[in-house]
Amino acid sequence: MADITSGLKKVRITAVRQTVYPDLMAKYENPIEHTCDVKEGRQWISVDGKRPEGMCPAAWYSMCEFVESLAKGEGNFYGGWMQNPMSAMVSCNDGFRPFSFYIEAIE
After folding, report:
1. Domain count of the chain?
2. Which one of 8, 80, 82, 93 is most buried, counting C-beta atoms within 10 A?
3. What is the pLDDT of residue 31?
């Protein structure tokens, strides 16, 4: 049987920016001591469309379909949304302090 992962592109994931909504946190969130370990500028490399080690599982869930598509050589999401058609800007699903991630196919 052929290896279906052969020929997949690597995908770089870069944590670009975190936005924080203190008003929403005060109104809706229970106080918590520890939230997110991601820092702006942190990078991961996805190999074979898989979640990189150390990547937050919740953040991965919000981007995995884009990463898998880019790894297969697909792109141009939503008909030209990104300047680089082999990339996407995706945010994690934390409604209080979401991180935006730039994901791009690389060789």
Report:
1. 1
2. 8
3. 87
